[in-house]
Amino acid sequence: MSLILTNTEITKLEAIIQNQLLAAGAEHVIIVDICGNLIVERGSMQMDDIFSLAAVSAANFAATAEIARLIGEEDFTLMFHKGDTRNIHFSRLGKDFIIVTLFNDNVSLGLIRLNLAKVLQQLEPILNGAEGRHRWPL
């Protein structure tokens, strides 16, 4: 898959993340492709190695997809991990992307999921449109 995003498209992605997730209390949000490449990052958390987080997040999602297959499901579209103070929510974004939302215990999972439903509807046309317009054989 080849993906080229214009500055306008990146600005739209970042604005949606800022206005819908970060404004609702999420600490950090990243969008990765299914290969683990970082597409967009926004938030207030200091990340020492965001690229490793992106790669491991994609691998985690791929492993979970295999678990789904083993139990007769086609796929799982979201995952959630709860920590002592921080939580992480993964959601499939279209066929080729994953949105990873990090938030603390002061924010409810329900609020994150509610806002993510809106965000997914807004982000998918941007990413899928960009991929379709700029795809070429490699």
What does this structure look like?
With 138 residues, this protein is an alpha+beta fold. It has a single domain (7-132), classed as Dynein light chain 2a, cytoplasmic (Beta-Lactamase). Helices cover 46% and strands 24% of the residues. It contains 3 helices and 5 strands. It has helices spanning 7-22, 50-70, 109-134, and strands at residues 28-33, 38-43, 78-82, 86-93, 97-104. The chain has a 5-stranded antiparallel sheet with strand order 2-1-5-4-3, sandwiched between helices. Strand 3 and strand 4 (86-93) form a beta hairpin. Helix 1 (7-22) packs antiparallel against helix 3 (109-134). It is globular and about 40 Å long.
Secondary-structure map:
Layout: H1 7-22, E1 28-33, E2 38-43, H2 50-70, E3 78-82, E4 86-93, E5 97-104, H3 109-134
Antiparallel strand pairs: 1-2, 1-5, 3-4, 4-5
